[in-house]
């Protein structure tokens, strides 16, 4: 497993003794803070916990945590896309779902369980590592954090259910169209999306490399997808919604 680069926790602890803490600036300028786990806390409460949160940067392909690792922290995604995946005893890989900006990963750690899947960066990713002990302490003092955790757990369950019902069943073309719609949720303001490899599409959609290649080529001809580079594409949402409507009508 490739270890992520993260802020050294020792300098962060020095903040408690009054020295400069770089994480304070990270939290203060965070673009997702109002949507993050501690968004309900006021400035004074946030100032007391900055030194316990680590800022982590991952390059594509790096692993944030692995299945069966001891779960001692959760992670808020500030930017980028990660995939949650498992491998069978036979070595077959299956991508369970994707996670992106504002998602909270590793929730099983709150129950003192091991992580249920590998969390791997698809793009450059920035996350904040939040120790389980900190969540336990704050949950006892702030009931709204416990309520927010329950909402995020339900959101993760809903995402898993959607993945199973929309992306793992039905005709191959329908699954591919639904995947592109899901990827649009992680796209930028110009309509650019992270483009999985054909092998990754197969692991997401339970289809062969050849089927994934054929479907992507067809959607390019139809003007739904426009290649930007090897790992990015521009998605025409109007064309995608039109094709999805036609696909649903023909089923």
Automatic annotation (TrEMBL):
Q: Which keywords annotate this record?
A: DNA-binding, Transcription, Transcription regulation
Q: What cellular-component terms does GO give this entry?
A: cytosol
Repeat as UniProt keyword: no
Domain (Cyclic nucleotide-binding) spans 37-156
Coiled-coil stretches noted in the UniProt entry, renumbered to this chain:
none
> Which GO terms fall under molecular function for this chain's record?
DNA binding; DNA-binding transcription factor activity
Q: List each copy of the HTH crp-type domain by range.
A: 170-238
Q: What is this protein called?
A: CRP-like cAMP-binding protein
- Source taxonomy lineage? Bacteria, Pseudomonadati, Pseudomonadota, Betaproteobacteria, Burkholderiales
């Amino acid at each position: 497993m490739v270890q992520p680069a993260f802020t050294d926790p020792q300098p962060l602890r020095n903040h408690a003794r009054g020295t400069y803490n770089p994480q304070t600036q990270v939290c203060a300028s965070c673009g997702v803070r109002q949507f993050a786990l501690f968004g309900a806390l006021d400035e004074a409460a946030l100032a007391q916990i900055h030194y316990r949160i680590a800022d982590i940067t991952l390059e594509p392909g790096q692993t944030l945590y692995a299945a069966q690792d001891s779960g001692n922290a959760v992670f808020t995604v500030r930017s980028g896309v990660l995939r949650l995946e498992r491998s069978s005893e036979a070595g077959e890989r299956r991508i369970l779902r994707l996670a992106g900006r504002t998602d909270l990963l590793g929730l099983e750690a709150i129950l003192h369980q091991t992580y249920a899947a590998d969390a791997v960066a698809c793009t450059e990713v920035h996350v904040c590592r939040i120790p389980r002990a900190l969540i336990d302490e704050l949950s006892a003092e702030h009931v709204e954090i416990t309520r927010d955790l329950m909402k995020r757990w339900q959101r993760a369950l809903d995402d898993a259910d959607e993945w199973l019902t929309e992306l793992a069943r039905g005709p191959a073309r329908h699954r591919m169209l639904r995947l592109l719609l899901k990827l649009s949720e992680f796209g930028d303001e110009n309509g650019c999306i992270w483009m999985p490899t054909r092998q990754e599409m197969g692991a997401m959609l339970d289809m062969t490399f050849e089927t994934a290649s054929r479907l992507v080529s067809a959607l390019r001809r139809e003007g739904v997808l426009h290649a930007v580079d090897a790992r990015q594409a521009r998605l025409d949402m109007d064309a995608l919604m039109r094709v999805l409507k036609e696909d649903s009508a023909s089923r």
